[in-house]
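[09:14] KT: can someone run the structure on this one? pasting the chain below
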Amino acid sequence: MDDVSHLLDELNDAQREAVTMGSNHCLVLAGAGSGKTRVLVHRIAWAIQVQHASPLSILAVTFTNKAASEMRGRVESLLQIPTSGLWIGTFHGICNRMLRLHASEAGLNPTFQILDSDDQFRLIRRTIREMQLDEGEFPPRQVQGFINARKDDGVRPDHIEHHGNPLTEQMVEIYRRYQAACERSSLVDFAELLLRTLELLRDNPTRQAHYQQRFAHVMIDEFQDTNSLQYALVRLLCGSDSQLFVVGDDDQSIYGWRGAKVENVQHFVDDYKPQVVRLEQNYRSTATILEAANRVIDHNDDRMGKNLWTDGEQGDPVRVFSAYNEDEEAEFIIGRIQDWLDSGRNPSEVGVLYRSNAQSRLFEQALLRADIPYRVYGGLRFFERAEIKDALAYLRLVHNPLDDAAFERVVNVPARGIGERTVAHLREAARASNQSLWDCSRHQLASGSLPGRARNALGVFVDLVAGLKQQHDETDLGGIMHRIIEQTELIQHYRARETSDRAEARQENLDELIRATENYEQSIEDEQAGLSPMASFLTQAALEAGEHQGEKWQDCVQLMTLHSAKGLEFPLVFMAGMEEGLFPHQKSVEEPGRLSEERRLAYVGMTRAMELLFLSYAESRRLHGQTLFGRPSRFVSELPPALVEDIRPRLQVSTARAPRQTNDGLPNLGSRVRHAKFGDGTVLTVEGQGDNARIQINFDDAGSKWLVFGYAALDRIA
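[09:31] RB: done, structure tokens below
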């Protein structure tokens, strides 16, 4: 055991128990900040070095490509051996790999391309238009959700019962025609990757037996975020002799709205009777923050139960601020951020979390006024940006001209005189002849079916793509990407229609795309699957575009929704908008089971904080064009009073009477005062005592300001 002691030295008792588990299945209930990634990495290393497992027998599934890459790197560092034999990746990445290896058995063209969410939406919208349906009655985004939900449940169109409901019957028909369009163009959407792999294993006993015998060690991260289809895949991949090692936290299941099933954790317990290990020691937050989070989540009665603790410091109380309105809430938070920065701390150590994206605007405005750098986390990733998707659509056509989604995206980008009427004609003709848009276009050009102007414009586009496809045989991936951007004149297109700054940013992104293709190194797995460098690059680009994570930030304050905050941590955290109806959201109160998920979301938000946690709410808030008068969130009232410091109690201020003075000469809340520079205003907040007290005043003309009482020289007015 001496030669493997380094695998256990840095682990606590619970982590060590999980890592060294014997032949039983294992469920690791890993609380926030408890070191679950470390456990997974060491478990893989333990299996290889102690249990003498072949790397080829290990399958480890994570939920982001970034996490998979980090896990692979840490295993290599720990064992000092290459990990090319390991299957480590996301569900979608693993399924893509399997389908490439067995494309013909799965009924796919080996060079199939992955359709990201945006292009899937476009293809669904095109299908709806081809069927001449009203998009108001059949919104493409709603139809997209319907199709993906059915696929997540493992259901094909022929197996959906509409029970005489004409709306459902029409949705099923859209699903059927959309899927036919995907088959015709060799396109696979994200949900299809999983469903097609499930069908491959389920309907092919030989293939299923092969993988069950191969993967003796199956490890799944973030198990609480799995959907029905993913759990079914796990069950198909695990044989009778496989060890299933599952890591998750039912208290952090917050993605039910996109199909995640927290009940899968309990299903796993019922189906596999695993040994359960709880990781409860937290290495992130203070004891006060953890105790507060524990007491809130205790109000959920549908949990497996654990109690986070730390041997670190007790820490400051959770501070709760009651604002009169959302403007004062934003000003208060920005004031605390400024104090943080004035003390020498960094902007990137601050996270401002909120329930709805609509709440970000006031914080952005206040940060701009205060000249504090910020970033809205979770914005568009590189491969989701319009100019990148346009360039990649051309690359997809060079790779596979039958890709209708790519054809439609760029047939008139840049504008070349191919209007919607011409495209609609092509769609109808392609559907009638069961052809791709590309083949139909060539046929229409050869037969002279189109009017002169449209024929000339379409001919220019077809010749452009055909020429690029021919040039691909003469150059490498980076070279063809450079020629695409140059010959399509995309940069000139953006310069002509956007401001110079935006056009320059798009050009920089396109230059970066060229560098990405020039430096692209194809994975061994894609080489073994017979993919060309172009096909491999397009596959990885589509998979990355499907991740819901932001990029690494600069040194600036991070604004984000609570859902985006999962997996992150900040020394200073603000949770804004803690009001009934906003958080928990009104819909969650009305729908069974949703309130528990909202409380888990509050728990996730609280456990992002490492040192200081502020909760704030407003007595009135204007949101979505309406003024709402709310009461504090139930999650605030669930905090133990001993752990809370109320910065200001709720007060109803009346300025109709003359203001009173405090004993030390400070004006009271609601007092009217006059400042030599800023004019007249109303006192909103008083913090501290004597000349060092800080006073927030909402000036009639100058807006809200924080002043130090001893230097403000305020005159009191009635």
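[09:33] KT: thanks! The domain at 653-718 is CATH 2.30.30 (SH3 type barrels.).
[09:34] RB: yep, looked fine to me
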